[in-house]
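Lecture notes, unit on protein representations.

Consider one protein chain, 229 amino acids long.
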Amino acid sequence: MQAKLIEWTEIAPGIRHFVFEAPEIRKLDFAPGQFVSFSDMVDGKEITRAYSIASAPSEGNRFELCLNRVEDGAFSPHLFDLAPGDAVQMRPPLGLFVLRQPPRDTVLVATGTGIAPFRSMLHAHLSTNSPAFTLLFGVRYESHLLYRDEFEEMARRFPHFCFWPTLTRPGPDWSGRAGRVQAHLAEAVGARRDNDVFLCGLKPMVDDVRHILKSMGFDRQQIRYEKYD
């Protein structure tokens, strides 16, 4: 299966929002939170990398990704060099990083481009009658709060959705939360122990938050995670 690039937008320094389509099929079936695997020849070698889908399922064959350029990475510079109309090989969506069915109140903890699967989940599942969601999103700088306008609009529309951005390097005008996501975890989950917690980001954050949640009394079945190395 091919994935053809339709367009891209730079949404933060070194980070792009990509829109692809799978032209060989009419509808791309996936569950929010799943990923696609891209393959292509780079410097004479076939490279394959997995990327979380950042958009909700639709009736069509388009899907979106949120990627940062890793200068010494094996594949991301290749993707950043693609022009609209270029294509790469793609495997169909896979993955078990999806909401429990039926969904229940959930805390989402992301850092950096780990926000991608949570954007997909929220666009697909957040509604007037949905369970409550809290999104704790950590980045270094305010300029890297990806999809900030979307999440703030969701918080205005749905009182049972809380958007908590936190910065590790806040500027002088920042009046929100500061520090790593770990510093705000206890407040985000509250006293309840019957909700789910989803984690997505770099391995050190995910491992640390998992350890903290277990020490707080969460069962491992309530903690779902994906790590980006």
